[in-house]
Model the fold of this input.
Amino acid sequence: MKISKPPDVLVAMGLGSCIGVALYDPVTKVGGMLHVLLPAADAMDKDAKRTKFANPGIYDFVEAMVKAGARKTNLVAKIAGGASLLNNSAQVGQRNAEECIKVLDELKIRIESKDVGGESGRTVYFDTATGQMTVSTLAKGKKTI
Amino acid sequence: MSGNSEHMDTMQADILREIANIGAGHASTALSMMLETTIEQTIPEVSLVALGDMMDLLGGAERVVVGVSVTVSGDIEGYLIMLLDVERAKEMVNAIRNQPPELDENGEIFSYLDRSALKETLNIMAGSYLTAIAQLTNLDGVPSPPSIAVDMLGAILSQPLAAAGESSDYVLYFKSGLFGRTIESGSGSDKFAGDLLLVPNKKSYQTLLDSLGCG
Done:
């Protein structure tokens, strides 16, 4: 989890089944990105790192954003990732995306745009000055969401 | 090695390294027979690293690689993955099919048959690797059919890491470098072929240690 302010651009490199969740307060320009590895922390060790899970990671992420000066009611989200590269896996990517969407919905945070699923890895840039997310894949180059 | 420990003692590391050595040794022999060339392996690295550090140790999350992977189920659960730089994968295809890789109809670097050849390579190596471990430990690990992707390293490893990271913030991996003698020119210089990674889930590496009386 990284939280910052303009002019910083936050990066999550080489996302496969992982998800880059960006939260942004367009008023205060506080922006952050969380790298989600797994959906929900059912089988986790008691002292495992919470932020690798969509749940409870996103809850912690929102708290940290508020501490950094964002207003919770201003927050909007953009998410990218959740691909399935190797077909012999347990659909982690899809479950990650579903859980992220569910948690953001529970927190009443609007998802402005998303780029999830597919079979390509993504590198994700989040610009705290504009709130724009740029998604880069090997096959299709860059696009802004 | 209990709980969330990020350390393993020297004895445990030695034993795990020996398991990797024997597994990868059999796998490289299988590869060597298939390619009719000499394949040498490096001394395996056995590392227990924080999830976030693994990509850096393998060349960075954005390094473009050909990744072929099988899931392993049975007494040992996890992933066995072959990572090749794109150029090395092309050489391997050339060595197996006696013709350079072809673009497929979608403009992908490798055709269906090229991909199939690379998958079959790992299939054979995985069988040898896991059989060798089974003979040593009496633990069976059954490989799934392989799948292949050409993409960023981080993207290829994220599912195996997710599986390993489900119950731990640390991931144990066995890495063996495999070197082939120059395939086409026969000049005798070593060429880097690729890495073979075994990423057992946490439960399984405890099982591996227990089986050798070293839990």
